[in-house]
Amino acid sequence: MNFYFEIKLLANVELTERILMNEAYAQLHTALATFKTTKVGFSFPGYSKQGLGATVRLHSDAEMLSNLLEYIENNRYLRNLRDYMSITECLSVPTDCQYITFKRKQPSLSSAKIRRLNARGRIDNKQMQVMLSDQKLLKEPFIRLKSTSTNQRYLLFIQQGKVVEEPITGDFNTYGLSKNATVPWF
């Protein structure tokens, strides 16, 4: 993870930062699935409880990042967003950085599973409403995505871990997230 490139979203009145992040993230997720790689991690320099911010950094080795930059250049959906994005070239990670994890945070039960439990009579309507409202208590920022296989919409909650001094190696999922592996933080 010695290299990175950065995508900065340029929001306007019509296309908000959140809408742009949802669209760009969906395409980046597709790219990682296409490349079948576990060696690309994402970070969000503007992360806060209010949102992920307007910037996403992709971290990996120089060859993988070059391939991703080429994919972005040739992807018709991302090309349509190019007027709303600023993408840097592949850059070296500063030597004096710290490290951090970004991982997926999931509710204990999905809304669909809670509704199925209710339909099967395992929980009553009141219990279902309590469980659905508890599920919405996740405080982490999220991305709205749509499954290409089921067409179902879902929320991908992203939790920022603690900053550490030493990197932890590991694999990343097709969302660029990992429970344990760190990405450079600067």
Determine the number of helices (DSSP H or I, runs of at least 4 residues): 5
Main β-sheet: number of strands, strand sense, barrel status?
Answer: 5 strands, antiparallel
Mean pLDDT: 92
Enter the CATH topology name: Alpha-Beta Plaits
Beta-strand fraction estimate: 15-25%
Q: What separation lies between the terminal Cα atoms?
A: 13 Å
Described by its quaternary structure, the protein is: single chain
What is the overall silhouette?
Answer: globular
CATH class equals: Alpha Beta
Domains (count):
1
Which regions are unreliable across 5 or more consecutive residues at pLDDT < 50? none
CATH superfamily, by name, is: CRISPR-associated endoribonuclease Cas6/Csy4
Query: What structural category do the secondary elements indicate?
Result: alpha+beta
Helix content: 25-40%
CATH architecture group name: 2-Layer Sandwich
Order of helices and strands: EHEEHHEEEEHHEEE
Rg (CA only): 18 Å
Number of E-state strands: 10
